TrEMBL record:
It holds the Pfam family Anoct_dimer. Residues 1-21 are annotated as: Disordered. Belongs to the anoctamin family. GO terms for molecular function: chloride channel activity; protein dimerization activity. It comes from the Eukaryota. Residues 253-829 form the Anoctamin transmembrane domain. Keywords: Cell membrane, Glycoprotein, Membrane, Transmembrane, Transmembrane helix. Its main location: membrane. This is Anoctamin. The keyword Transmembrane helix applies. One of its GO terms (cellular component) is plasma membrane. It is a multi-pass membrane protein. It is found in: Cell membrane; Membrane.
Length: 863
């Protein structure tokens, strides 16, 4: 299989050997062209010749013969020319006739007229953005055109200057992949029409890989003047971290990788830009907490030796825990104030509005990209009608209608869906069980920490208390363990989700992605957020009161439900959020950058000793990692999970958007770097939006308003403080003096059960609740202040939700999804297409009539 498969001169073996020597000497293999230096390589197939498997050899022979029949030109590199001396490479070129034919079939839009609509590029204070801009030839490498679907019979209607460069490489590889996906590898007389497609040949091992070529090495321009070197431009102006403050060359990304990858980076860049505003406001709220540090009266009372130092609190666990002084929580109380202040309420409301602005402005940005990238009339469903090879293989039944196609019987489909649903529920239950295990760990370890620190907390508070408490030690260690469990479950469930999605046998790739998206996001939602939901909405809410405590698994377990310290559970939620969110982001970036680099370094170790001219372009790309069809899926999933962290629980940590902003600045360049340097060139694909992720983001945005309202009401101490200041201050003054004593209730320690009573003795102790004291006719029942606070909390939730949702819907109504200038351009383009096509047909008809008239005149003259 040496030499050319088509349009190659036949030659003897000796001539081929001589020609091979000349090629090595005169023609560098680091090229994207055939050996003739003219025909461009649009796609590459690789395989290892298995002499023991005649079936694979026959498939390749028939498949390649069928490719030649449809017009593709092939050239094969012998295994002796490869670095491992075991791999064949089949290079594929699509000539003009093939490209024109399938561009017509796929309705690919091409330019027919230069855009004549004046564009107002001048912006006020335009000079401010100059440092962030890229060179004009990188941002807009070609003029703006009006486009129309290509029609081969009317090729002279379009602006075709050079047929060889009319279709860009991304369009060429998309067309070739379309052909590869539909070409049969079984002879026609066999009658099995379903045996077709490069996907199935890759799955059964007939070919080892199939990929389009990068146009050059990423660190240097191609030596061939006919090569665009767009990969080098992308690396130089986009993938390097030193370009983190520069805008992204979205047009070049789209031109090189296709619209689907381009729309992802457009969304990621827009999301990062919008995070800047949230990060600024969040930082201001944090600074407000710092500036009002000295106005924190309740923390002063806790730390005061005459107030907090004399208040004895009830034990936080049975028997092992001793009584403790309130001022032992002085440090956590001050820390809590940084996030639990009036600014928190403002920031929670702001983020509810920010989310709406983000989604609405993204719709406008997306609409503009749809127009600029010729995706206005694109329907993804029409482009995904090709059945998945797995579906065709497993669905042997046939449905007789106007189009005979395989189908899955309803009984089998229902059984598969039920099994899939049961598997998902089982894994979600497994996550919840792991969370319960972590909670049990917190309860058991807290008792151990409390026992160890018992003497330190009561006798040596000035040495130990301000720095470490059982609550802090338990919270940090539990959060770290929870993060490790999350990462382990992630690795396991990724495979499970793919397995059960494969088991459902989705019909198209679009349906496959949607099903996998729902499963993975549902799992990730429970996996990442469940611990935060526990701390925010369950911890400290069902503890009972001294003498009648609630236990996790009943009194026999001796694991008493956790309490929040007088500083509240908000600081623990902040700790949990920081550890899980930061840990995931740091680990994700290391994994994304390091793993592909190590695998490529190991895979190309043999080729590193080869001269540059002998290390072929197809071998270089073959040694890189494959960017699979689910490559973008994991990138979206990572960012959507982060989006949940900065919206669902942002009321507990206003600096979350700032951490996300820093991460995303790095993420954009890490994704660009690995895509440009560590992965093979992805097959260009179209996508007019971010797909199902847009609906998921909208759902998270709505849920975030509810969760933040509940965090402020029930996790924060904001509402009890406001109720005390305005309604229960004893002197009628609007300040927080006396709040700590007011928020505590008394308990007679003599009423402790002997099995739960600590060894040491103290005076009547306090606990955090609003209950009548011992001796009162309603002792240990809730006071009226408790019900007033509960009513205030519910009223706050209702008011905040209604205000934020009203603003959200008003903003969504006020901001149109499609900008007015884009609507005008779309109408103008449609009008011009009709007008120019009409004029074209009229002119063509005139020419035909004039030719017919001259022919008749000539015939008459001859007669």
């Amino acid at each position: 299989m040496n030499g050319y498969h088509q349009q190659a001169p036949s030659s003897t073996g000796s001539f081929q050997q001589e020609q091979s020597v000349i090629d090595k000497q005169q023609h560098s293999k680091d090229s994207v062209f055939f050996r003739d230096g003219v025909r461009r390589i649009d796609f590459v197939l690789s395989y290892v010749d298995d002499k023991d498997c005649e079936k694979k050899q026959e498939r390749r022979k028939v498949y390649e013969a069928n490719l030649v029949k449809v017009g593709l030109e092939l050239e094969t590199e012998d295994k002796s020319e490869s670095e491992d001396e075991n791999t064949y490479f089949v290079k594929i070129h699509a000539p003009w006739e093939v490209l024109a034919t399938y561009a017509d079939v796929l309705k690919i839009k091409v330019p027919f007229k230069v855009n004549d609509i004046p564009e107002n590029k001048e912006m006020p204070m335009n000079w401010l953005s100059t440092p962030f801009r890229l060179p004009e030839h990188i941002m807009k490498p070609e003029p703006d055109y009006f486009t129309a679907p290509f029609n081969k019979s009317k090729s002279d209607f379009f602006l075709i200057n050079d047929k060889e460069t009319f279709f860009p490489p991304s369009t060429r590889n998309r067309i070739v992949y379309y052909i590869l996906s539909r070409c049969s590898y079984i002879k026609e007389e066999c009658g099995d029409k379903d045996k077709k497609g490069i996907k199935r040949l890759l799955n059964n091992g007939t070919y080892t890989s199939a990929f389009p070529l990068h146009d050059c090495r990423y660190w240097t321009r191609s030596k061939d003047a006919n090569c665009e070197s767009e990969r080098y431009n992308l690396y130089k102006h986009w993938a390097r971290f030193l370009c983190f403050f520069k805008e992204q060359p979205l047009n070049l990304i789209r031109k090189y990788y296709g619209e689907k990858i381009g729309i992802y980076f457009a969304w990621l860049g827009f999301y990062t830009e919008m995070l800047l505003f949230a990060a600024i406001v969040g930082t201001i709220c944090f600074i407000y907490g710092l500036l009002t540090y000295d106005d924190n009266e309740w923390s002063k009372e806790i730390c005061n030796e005459q107030i907090g130092g004399k208040i004895v609190m009830c034990p936080l666990c049975d028997k092992k825990c001793g009584y403790w002084k309130l001022n032992s929580t002085c440090n956590s109380s001050w820390q809590s104030h940084l996030f639990d202040n009036v600014g928190t309420v403002f920031f929670a409301i702001f983020m509810g509005i920010w989310v709406t602005l983000f989604l609405e402005f993204w719709k406008r940005r997306q609409a503009r990209l749809e127009y600029e990238w010729d995706l206005v009339d694109f329907e993804e469903e029409q482009q995904q009608l090709q059945l998945r090879p797995e579906y065709e293989t497993k669905c042997t039944n046939r449905k007789m209608n106007r189009i005979t196609q395989p189908y899955l019987p309803i009984t089998s489909k229902c059984a598969r869906i039920c099994l899939s649903g049961a598997t998902v529920l089982f894994w979600i239950s497994l996550i919840i069980a792991c969370i319960i295990g972590v909670i049990a760990y917190r309860l058991a370890v807290y008792a151990a920490f409390a026992s160890i620190m018992k003497d330190s907390l009561t006798n040596n508070l000035e040495v130990v208390g301000p720095y470490i408490t059982p609550q802090l030690a338990t919270s940090v260690t539990a959060s770290c363990i929870n993060f490790v469990i999350i990462m382990i479950l992630n690795l396991m469930y990724e495979r499970v989700a793919i397995w059960i999605t494969d088991m459902e046998i989705p019909k198209t790739h679009l349906e496959y992605e949607n099903k996998l998206t729902v499963k993975m996001f549902l799992f990730q939602f429970v996996n990442y957020y469940s611990s935060c939901f526990y701390v925010a909405f369950f911890k400290g809410k069902f503890v009972g009161y001294p003498g009648n405590y609630a236990y996790m698994f009943g009194k026999w377990s001796k694991l008493r439900n956790e309490e929040c310290d007088p500083g509240g559970c908000l600081i623990e939620l902040t700790t949990q959020l920081v550890i899980v969110m930061t840990g995931k982001q740091v680990w994700g970036n290391i994994q994304e950058a390091l793993v592909p680099w190590l695998m490529n370094w190991w895979g190309s170790r043999r080729a590193r000793s080869h001269p540059e001219t002998l290390y072929s372009r197809w071998e270089q790309d073959h040694d890189l990692q494959s960017f699979g069809q689910l490559g973008l899926f994991y990138e979206y999933l990572e960012m959507v999970i982060q989006f949940g962290f900065i919206t669902l629980f942002v009321a507990s940590f206003p600096l979350a958007p700032l951490l996300a902003l820093i991460n995303n600045i790095i993420e954009v360049r890490v994704d660009a770097w690995k895509l440009t340097t560590q992965f093979r060139r992805a097959v260009a694909a179209k996508a007019h939006s971010i797909g199902a992720w847009e609906e998921i983001l909208s759902g998270v945005a709505i849920l975030s308003v509810v969760t933040n309202a509940f965090i402020v009401a029930f996790t924060s101490d904001m509402i009890p403080r406001l109720v005390y200041m305005y309604a229960y201050h004893p002197k009628g003054e609007m300040n927080m003096k006396g709040y700590i004593k007011d928020s505590l209730s008394l308990f007679n320690i003599s009423e402790f059960q002997p099995a739960n009573r600590p060894d040491d003795e103290e005076n009547p102790s306090c606990y955090r609740d609003y209950r009548y004291p011992p001796g009162h006719v309603k002792q240990y029942t809730h006071t009226m202040q408790f019900w007033h606070i509960l009513a205030a909390k519910l009223a706050f939730i209702i008011i905040m939700e209604h205000v934020v949702f009203s603003v959200k819907f008003f903003v969504a109504w006020m901001i149109p999804d499609v900008p007015s200038d884009v609507k005008a351009r779309i109408k103008r383009e449609r009008y011009l297409v009709q007008e120019y096509l009409h004029n074209y047909e009229v002119e063509k008809l005139k020419i035909q009539l004039s030719q017919n008239g001259s022919d008749e005149t000539e015939v008459t003259a001859q007669m």
